[in-house]
Each structure stands twice: as C-alpha cells, then as structure tokens.
Design brief:
heterotrimer; A alpha+beta (285); B alpha+beta (747); C alpha+beta (159); A: 285 residues; alpha+beta; Uridine Diphospho-n-acetylenolpyruvylglucosamine Reductase, domain 3; Enolase-like, domain 1; 2 domains; five-stranded antiparallel beta sheet; 11 helices; 25% strand; globular; B: 747 residues; seven-stranded mixed beta sheet; five-stranded mixed beta sheet
C-alpha cells in the first residue's frame, strides 16, 4: 500500500483517477478499521488533510461549506455553524467517541455509505449538498443521492466529495437529529431521525424528514413531512408523523435490533425530534 | 471448614488507604503488560482460525506460507507430537490447535511466526485449509434436543441418566429434604424458565505472551495471565515438557475476571519459538479474544419455588443447563450449588447439566456459574413477594441462611454475613428514597464460596532492614498493596519499608491462580505467617546478641524487646539493627510460608438498584445502585469498594446489553467492543459500596474474599427493578430495549 | 517495500521514524519507539486505551496512520508527568484508588487531561460523556469520575 498526501484537490483527483484501487483517507475512523480487519486492501491511501481548502468551515456565498477533512469536533466548536444547524452538528457529534470525533468527518460518514451513519439523515433533512470534484470538474449533488446501497456510492471513478454545503439558515427554521441506541454512547444507530422545518407563525410551512438505519440507505420520508406541513405540530400531527415515519421505514432484523422494534422506535424518535425542531424554529430552544 | 485463625486486634495499617505500590508505574505508562515486552531477535506470532462453527479439517497446505520471505515457522496440530494423557490437558491442546475438527468459529487451525506483523498476517492468508463443513449447534436448549448434532461422541460421563443426548456431558445434583412434600405446604408456587446469554469477561488487555523455547525443552514465558504457575504447568503438560525447565513470569495484567485462568495460546507461542529458534511474541487481537477465548456459559434454567402467604419458602427446585462451549466444564454444577445458597430451605433440589455446543470453550467469569444460579432464584422470590404483597427484604431475611444453616450444596455455615447485608440494606436511605414515574427499585442477594488454594510466600529481611516480599499471584486489582500492608502491620514497620514483588515460577513453590477471590485471603494469610516466621528468626538473632533465650523476647513496633524484667534490661533492637548483624548471627534472615488454607469464609451480598424504563423504547436506565457486602475485614477499603463497584457494573452490562450473538451459520456476529456492548461511563451512576465486616474465622485478620460475589445479584436485582417499574417480568437476558419493549407491548 | 520517513514531535522531543504505509501511529509508538504506555485494546477506536493528542486534539492512535504524523505534535501518557512531578490527575488517581488493573488508565488520563484543558469545570455528566470512549472493565467508573471531578476542583482552586 502506498501513502499519498496531496496538497491540492487537483493532485488528489489525479492520484485517484490514476489508481482505481486507491482510497481517500479523511478522518480514517472507518477506513483504518477496515484496513486492520483486512476488509479492504487498497493499493494506496490518499490523505486529504494536507489540502487547505478541505480543512476549513466557511460561508463563502451564504451557504455553509464544511471541508471534507474537517473533523466533527471542529463542527461542534464552530459557534456559527452550531447556531445555524444545531441538528447537523449534534448528529456529527454523535459519531463514535470524543476520540473518534477528533478525526471523523461528515463527508467520510456520507461516503462510507453505511445505512446507520448518524450525520446523514440530519444533513439530508437540512438540504445539504455534496460538492463532488472529479476529472470533469465540480458538481453539487444532493446528499441523499450519494449513497446508493450499503457501502456503495454514486461517485464515479476519479471523483471525490470535497465538501458538504448547507443553506444559510432560513428564518423561523429549526433542525434536530435524534437516534436510538442501546447504550448512551458508542453504539451504531438502531434508528436515526433528522428533521428540518420552517414555521410561519405557529404553522409548519415546510419540513423534511430523513430516516437512518431503517433501510439500505437514508430514507427521505415525504409522507412524514406532509403530516407536519400545515399543522402546528400538535399531538395529532405528531402522531400522524410517527405513523408515517414508521410506515416509511423498511428495516431488517439484525444483531442491533428487530425490524418490528425499529419500526416502532422510528415513530417515537420522529415525534421527539420534531418537538425539538419546532422549539428551535420558534426560538424556544 | 473454617479454622480458628482469627484474633481480634487493633490495626495500624490495615483499613487505611495508602497509595498502591505499583501506582506510579500505572499512571505514567511505565507498567509492563503482556504485549509490552520484547526480546532480541523476536518474531511475531499469529494464528489462523476456522471460519466455520463445525467442520472436518480435510487438509492444510502451509507450503506457500513457509516459502515466504520473513516467515520463520508455520505450525499445525501435526507439529504437536505429544498427546497429553490427562483429558483436561488434551482438551487444552485441542482448543489451542484444532485436531481433526474445528469445533467453533474462531478455533485455531494453524499458526505462523514471522519477522514482522504484516508478514505474519500475509502468511496466514497464504495458508490454505480445506474444510468439510459439518452440522452445528450453538444454543444450549437446541443442543439437548433429540437430533442435535453431537459435538463429542463418547464423552458423556456415567452420572448422566438415560434420556439425555450426548451433548449433555455431565450431571450433578444437590439438595436435601423432599420438595414434593414442601410444595404441598405452599400457598403460591411459581414455575418458570429463565435464560441468560453468554457474556465475555471483556478485559481490556487482549491475551498476550512472549515465549522462548529451546530444542532442549528449556524455556521462558512472559505472559499476561491470572496464574503463571498454571500457564507453566499446563503448557508443559500439553507439550510434553518438564515443568521445572520452564520459567513463567507474570506481566502486569490488564483485567481477567476469570478469563485469564485458562491456557489459550501459550503452547502455540512456545511451539512456534521452538520451531523458529527465536523468541515469539503472540498477541491476540480483539476479534480473537471474543471468538476464541472463553466467554461465560449461556444458560437455561427451569425453576419452581413455593411460598406460604406469610413469606416462608416451603420448597424449591431448579434444573440448570449451561452450555460450556466446545469442551466440558463445571459451570452448571456451580450454578446448582450457588443459586439457593443464600436461603435456609427445608426442601430443596438442584441439578446441573453441562452441555457442549459449537462455541468457544466457556471460561470462568467472576463467580462462575453463580450469576446464572441466582438469576432465576432471586427473580422468582421477587415475583412471589409481588404476588403475595410481601416486602422483598423482609422475606429474604425471613428465609436467610445464617450460622448453622445447612447449605444446598452440603456444608453447614459458620458465622456468615448475609443477614447483616440485608439489615444494612433495610436501614439505608436508598431503600426509602422516593421514586418517579416509570421507575422501580429491585433487590437481590448473591453468594460465592471463596477459596484458598496452594500458596507460597517468602519474606526477605534485607541487610539494611528493608523487606522484600515475594508472592506468586498476578496482581489484578491492588493485591500488592494489600500484601504490603499486611506485612508492614505484622512486622510493625512503616509501609514504605516493604516492597512486594510477583515472583516467577522458579522462585516460589506452587501458587494457585489469582481466582476464587483467594488472594487477599490465602496469600494474605501466608504473608502474615511468613512475617511471623521472619519475626521468630529475628527474635533468635536478638537473643543470640543479648545472650538470652528467644522465648524471653517479644516483638513489637518493628523491634525485638526483652519480654519482661526477668529477661534482662536491653534497649530494643530494631529490624534494621538485627538485619545489620545478620551476617554474624547466622546469615540471611527470611520467613516463608507454604500452605493450602481451607478457611476462606463464604461471601454474601445484597444489591439494591433503581431503574427507569422508557415506556416508548424499552430502554432501561440505571439511576441509583448500592452494594452491601461482607468483606470480613477490608484491608485496603478503596480496592474492596472497587471490587464491589466493578462487579456491579459487569452485572449491569450482563443484565441489560451484553450478549454473544450467533448467526444461523454458527458464526459470532459481534466480536468487537462496538456491538458487544459493555457499559460505558455515561451508562452508569455512581455505585455506592457499603462494606460490612463480619470477621472470617479462617483468617488471622478476618479477611474474606470480595472479588466475585458482586457480579451475582445484579442480573435479578435489575430484572426486579424493571418489573416494579414497568410491570413486566423479564426472564431472558439481556433485557435489551427490543425485548423490554416487546414485553411491554405484549402486556 | 519502501518505508516512509516521518518527522514529528512526541512529548516535546523531535522524533524521526520509518514506517510502512499501513502501520498505525499506535504500532509505531509501541513497536518502534518503545512508548508502550499507549495500549491496544481493540484496534477499532472502541476502547480508548490508545488515546493520545495530536496537535492538541484527542484521538485514538489506533485510528491514525503513522505516516499522518508528519509535522504534527503528539502527546502520549509518557509525556504527562513533568519529570518526577506527576500531573494532578495522575496524583489524584493514585490517592483515590481510581484504577484497578491499570490497562485503561493511560488512555483515561490522556483523555481527562484534554477535557480539563478545554473545560476546567465539567459537570459529572460531561465527564462521563467525554470519557464514554474510554472503556474500563474493572472500576464501574465511579472512582475515575470522582477523581477527575476532584482534580478539576483542585486545579480551579490553584489557578
């Protein structure tokens, strides 16, 4: 295995395009585990942490831009980002331990295409876009379109995600992410729910609901969002949200939980997440 | 039983909380654990393991691996040319390196030694094994069904009656009275099945050793273990070597909890070293630790208890089936002995069935068998109390074992501390603290035998009057502090004048493992007696100097004194002064003691826990926890409390989230700390330890072992709390959220 | 296989080493630099026994390639005491019996020190969540959490 540490995105793409078996190394908290267990054996790793443009959080044109090499701990320490998108930041802050958060990136969390990735439902709900760079230039792709199946992405040969972008925070909006895990920390999500919504007075005028760990990839639950839109987020609306979220889930039985449990808890978590998002949109939390 | 060793006395050192002697090395990273030692010319060992739960090994082709640059040895079972006669040792060999069949996912089938870790890993990949996959069984209740694949033909012992299949290797039975008569007197009888999952000891330090073995059969092994004598003895027997030609040295040990009381890979490292002609370091990875070093047994128990409406238990029976993994073990016997031990019963019968399955060899885990023994008993007693509207502490007190009670496993108890723990629980503010919504409070009791065992200690008085204490038990949780304190107490000298070392196997007589909660009791007893022996020698030296009889000398405050005016008027002669003249008064001064002490007092505990259940997700949170346990005498209370707290935390993990998960293919699905979920810091509350001191008659200072009992009560204590918070009786561990939620939905 | 040359700073000392591309920082610390105070409990970032800081950021050294250490400043347990003077956390752990077997202790201490540098007045809950990635199987965490809280109090008083 070779180790590359390119200084620019172009150099990284050149290396990636030239070597189909190379892997991008951002935080490495997933890649190193897979290297160690011999689950993957790349010909090279391309460490992108020496590329200045990928190591910062910025707001170039109203949108937030989180470089692909920014660890989640830095997101949590960024007051502006945290104020704008607390749900996304909290989700990033749930990835593994403090130690893992010192390295793990939301871009890596996305590109590993794990069905239970914590940051992904939060980013999807928030309308995040992935900045994809490749031999043919740069394009923006909705985050939900990056993973296609467990471990698989829509990225083409030679392409890499260089940043995640988030819209500027709309007025009267709030986002939240909650997950269910058996312990209080250190587990992979059994269910994850990200919700972002915008209020008009007491009425929810727009909402997006994304579900994690209950399907082969993140699920955008439009029916669940519809259950909220046009309501005040009262108990009846929340019950309808829960029912729609549970119905949208397509979970399986595995070592982390049963399908039935996951479906039930999807609804529970959706309600709890929505309450936080509504409170945030109203400026109450 | 207990010998009359105990003498009440005032202590100067015992019961204080000094800084442990090995502490600085452990907070600075200097302490050397199993994987921290290296040797000149050292090679890295690695083991290839079966991916199948049960398979015949058709052939193994090692030629490509052997031909690789940097590979210095490749071995399979064929290289172990000695076949041990002893069945237990033959099982150890077969477990270390599979013979004709691989018996579980993770069973070793070949090993290599190479000049680097990466070459060793590549060499494992180059070994080609041809398997014929065989039918497997991993569940204990499936294993005893007709038609189950039989793991070992012809191993069933004669004590197993007709009607059991060949996976039931052994049956034991205990009890007295006539339960059928007793049940007739009951107002309420509850009969249920309970199951517990296999759990791993979860020590944070993976098993590791550094071995060197010559062609002449002389060797050295540095090893992280709970018993380096055991490692030496068993490795020698497995390899057909003379034990005396091997010297084992214990590294610092990063947790064991019973899991390191067995030999898992040491003979492989020794054999690799012998083949390669160089030292070999063999360090397991976490995946191997989970797949191939013993978890505890999973269990299934059919229990029946009868009670009168005023709380008297009239009769009790329980049949325990414990899966011991791929090789026979005694866990069901221990469960059958321990489950009802806290209760004074007129009519009681228990039976233990040892069941083999296609899982790794089950190992001891802190009071082995006892948690599985207690879980059904303490759960059903609680349920009887709920249904008969009785107080769970008073009912336990009413039925509690006490001095003179005939234990279910046979003997009659001397002075014991169970009632004291129950009374302390009743009197504690925890018992009457208010509870909120979805919260409940559970209690449960637990028992462990404790143990003595072969023990050898030497205490050397150096020329400058300082003391070196040599003991032969790996210090897993502060025992060097305890030994140092006992030696200083007995000699009457300051603590910093004594240093305790863990001697290698060539420096002391046989020492049993650090297990059975035996070390502070047995090694402590031997330390006190070795100190007394040294004092006798020093009194003789002083007598020689003073020209009086040694009987006319008494020892106090670290010095020889004339026993009275008749003995003569001499100023006291301190240990330093006696040491300084030792060369001229007969030579070096040392005391020693060798024994197999039999007075380890039994141990009881009562635990109290508050839990809160999330009614929508089934998640159980532990809010408050208090441990009441009899320590006999707490030598260093910090480390007694630590044992109480640590055992409770392990029990909480066992109760709520820990389990071995096997797939249909018989492979372990969660061999890592990500999905084998031991409690993390944010999962637990503070755990309050309440130390009770009912002196053990069998120890000079009254010490009872405290290491194991604390894992026994939590399983039922938490189930009882959940029952009282959510009105669901969980009978299958772990009480993970999906199970709790399903139970609540089914109400 | 050609090896990679890395120049780094470890516990204040300029250090150079050669490593293979797939070797982790933990491998090099332990096997090449004889800094065996960082422990390998899992090699998957789940136990925290290998905790170190890299440019002041707490990480698992098992989850970082050694080659990534180029130009970074690394602190390990071996650098925590100032000569014979123990760090207040080390001293408090000894005084309060906050260790049993001691295998998790280096990682816990490195992590706790990093916490107190960022937050000198953490709540019990903050300490527990910060240390959730440092598994301890012996203590039930009680004495560890108390020792961190007590140290924080002492250090605030001394500041």
């Amino acid at each position: 295995m070779k180790f590359h540490s390119p200084q620019s995105v172009d150099e990284a793409i050149g290396l990636l395009a030239a070597d189909p078996d190379a892997k991008i190394l951002a935080g490495g908290t997933d890649l190193l585990v897979r290297l160690r267990s011999r689950d993957v054996a790349p010909s090279a790793v391309i460490d992108i942490k020496r590329i200045d443009a990928l190591t910062t959080i910025s707001q170039p044109d109203g949108r937030w831009r989180i470089g692909a090499a920014v660890p989640s701990a830095e997101m949590n320490e960024h007051a502006g980002l945290k104020a704008a998108w607390p749900g996304v930041v909290e989700a990033a802050d749930l990835i593994g331990s403090t130690q893992v958060q010192g390295r793990a990136t939301v871009t890596g969390n996305l590109c590993n295409a794990g069905p239970a990735a914590d940051s992904v439902p939060a980013m999807v709900a928030a309308g995040a876009m992935a900045e994809v760079a490749g031999p043919d230039g740069t394009r923006l792709v909705p985050v939900e379109d990056i993973p296609t199946a467990p471990g698989k992405t829509s990225l083409k040969q030679g392409e890499m995600v260089t940043a995640i972008t988030l819209p500027g925070k709309p007025a009267n909006s709030g986002d939240a992410y909650l997950r269910f895990i058996p312990r209080t920390e250190m587990d992979i999500a059994v269910v994850g729910v990200g919700i972002a919504l915008t209020m008009d007075g007491d009425t929810i005028k727009d909402a997006k609901v994304a579900l994690g760990a209950v399907g082969p990839k993140v699920i955008v639950a439009d029916a669940a969002a519809k259950a909220l839109i046009g309501t005040t987020g009262d108990e009846a609306a929340l019950d309808a949200l829960a029912e729609a979220a549970s119905a949208a889930a397509t979970p399986i039985d595995d070592k982390r939980g049963t399908a039935e449990f996951r479906r039930d808890v999807t609804g529970v978590m959706a309600k709890r997440t929505a309450k936080i998002a509504i409170a945030r949109a109203k400026g109450e939390a | 039983m207990a010998k009359d060793e105990y003498q009440a006395r005032e202590f100067k050192v015992i019961g204080t909380r000094p800084i442990r002697p090995d502490g600085i090395d452990k907070v600075t990273g200097k302490a050397q654990y199993g994987a921290d030692m290296s040797a000149p010319g050292m090679l890295w060992g690695a083991i290839k393991r079966s991916p199948h739960a049960h398979a015949r090994i058709v052939s193994i082709d090692t030629s490509a691996a052997s031909a690789m640059k940097g590979v210095k040895a490749v071995i399979t079972r064929a290289d172990f040319t000695h076949q041990p006669e002893d069945k237990a040792n033959a099982d150890v060999l077969d477990n270390c390196m599979a013979g004709e069949r691989a018996l579980y996912d993770g069973h070793a089938v070949a090993a290599v030694a190479a000049t680097s870790k990466s070459i060793a890993a590549a060499a494992l990949d180059a070994i080609k094994v041809d398997y014929e996959v065989l039918p497997h069984v991993t569940d204990v209740d499936d294993a005893v069904k007709p038609g189950a694949p039989i793991i070992h033909e012809g191993r069933q012992r004669e004590n197993v009656p007709e009607g059991h299949n060949g996976n039931v290797i052994s049956r034991t039975a205990f009890g007295h009275g006539d339960p059928e008569e007793g049940f007739k007197k009951a107002d309420l009888i509850i009969e249920r099945n309970f199951t517990t999952a296999a759990t791993h000891q979860g020590y944070i330090e993976p098993n590791a050793c550094l071995a060197s073995l010559g062609a002449d059969g002389q060797g050295e092994i540095w090893v992280c273990t709970q018993g380096h004598y055991m490692v030496r003895n068993v490795s020698a027997a497995v390899l057909g070597l003379d034990a005396g030609k091997i010297r084992a040295t214990a590294s610092e040990i990063g947790g064991g909890f019973g899991g390191k009381t067995h030999v898992w890979q040491e003979p492989v490292a020794l054999k690799l070293s012998q083949e390669a002609g160089k030292p070999v370091k063999l360090v397991l990875n976490r995946d191997e630790v989970f797949r191939a070093t013993g978890p505890t047994a999973s269990s299934s128990a059919d229990i029946k208890i009868g009670m009168t409406k005023d709380g008297k238990i009239t009769a009790a029976t329980c049949t325990y089936r414990l899966q011991s993994g791929a090789y026979p073990a005694d866990n069901a016997m221990l469960a059958a002995m321990c489950g009802f031990a806290p209760y004074d019963l007129e009519h009681v019968r228990t039976e233990g069935l040892e069941v083999v399955t296609n899982r790794p060899k089950a190992a001891a885990y802190r009071a082995p068998g006892a948690p599985m023994g207690a879980f059904p008993v303490e759960s059903v007693i609680d349920e009887l109390c709920q249904k008969l509207d009785l107080d769970p502490l008073d009912t336990r007190l009413q039925n509690a074992s006490r001095e003179g009670t005939r234990a279910v496993y046979g003997p009659t108890y001397p002075a014991i501390g169970l009632e004291a723990t129950l009374e302390a629980a009743k009197a504690h503010p925890h018992w009457t603290a208010p509870l909120g919504d979805n919260q409940g409070r559970g209690v449960a009791c637990g028992f462990w035998f404790n143990f003595g065992g072969d023990t050898s200690v030497s205490l050397m008085v150096n020329l400058d009057g300082t003391v070196s204490l040599a003991e032969g038990n790996p210090d897993i949780g502060g025992s060097r502090a305890a030994m140092t304190m006992m030696a200083a107490e007995e000699l009457g000298i300051p603590l910093d004048q004594v240093r305790t070392f863990i001697a290698d196997t060539a420096s002391l007589g046989q020492n049993e493992n650090t297990h059975g909660s035996r070390v502070t009791y047995a090694v402590g007893l031997a330390t006190i007696k070795a100190a007394r022996h040294a004092i006798e020698v020093m009194k003789q030296r002083a007598a020689m100097k003073w020209g009086i009889d040694a009987d006319a000398i008494e020892w106090k405050d670290g010095a020889a004194h004339p026993a009275g005016d008749n003995a003569g008027k001499f100023p006291p002669m301190s240990i330093k002064e006696i040491a300084a003249i030792s060369s001229n008064t007969g030579g070096p001064i040392a005391g020693h003691h060798e024994a197999n002490p039999e007075g380890a007092g039994v141990s009881f505990a009562t635990h109290m826990v508050d839990t809160e259940t999330d009614p929508e997700t089934g998640a159980v949170k532990v809010l408050r926890y208090t441990v009441f346990q009899d320590a006999g005498k707490a030598i260093h209370p910090d480390y007694v409390e630590g044992q109480f707290q640590g055992g409770a935390a392990q029990g909480i993990g066992w109760a709520l989230n820990e389990e071995y998960v096997y797939g249909e293919d018989g492979r372990l699905q969660n061999p890592g700390f990500l999905d084998y979920r031991i409690p993390v810091a944010s999962d637990l509350p503070m755990i309050e330890p309440v130390i009770l001191e009912i002196p053990n008659p069998g120890h000079p200072y009254g010490v009872r072992g405290v290491g194991e009992t604390s894992i026994v009560p939590p399983l039922a204590a938490i189930a009882n709390a959940v029952s009282r918070s959510s009105d669901v009786r969980l009978t299958a561990l772990p009480m993970s959220p999906p199970k709790v939620l399903a139970a609540m939905k089914a109400k | 296989m050609s090896r990679i040359h890395v120049s780094t700073t470890i516990n204040g000392d300029e250090t150079e080493f050669l490593c293979e591309a797939q070797e982790t920082l933990l491998d090099v610390l332990r096997d090449d630099l004889d800094l065996t105070g960082s422990k390998e409990g899992c090699a998957s970032g789940d136990c925290g026994a290998c905790s170190v800081t890299v440019d002041g950021r707490l990480v698992c050294s098992c989850l970082m390639l050694a080659a990534e250490a180029e130009g970074r400043a690394i602190e390990t347990i071996e650098g925590m005491a100032d000569g014979d003077d123990l760090h207040p956390l080390q001293q408090k752990f000894l005084e309060m019996g906050a260790l049993q077997c001691g295998i998790c202790t280096p990682g816990v201490l490195v992590a706790a020190k990093n916490l107190l540098e960022r937050n000198p007045d953490p709540t019990e809950e903050q300490v527990r969540y910060w240390l959730a990635g440092n598994l301890c199987r012996c203590t039930g965490y009680d004495k560890i959490i108390r020792a961190v809280m007590e140290t924080a109090k002492d250090m605030r008083g001394a500041a």
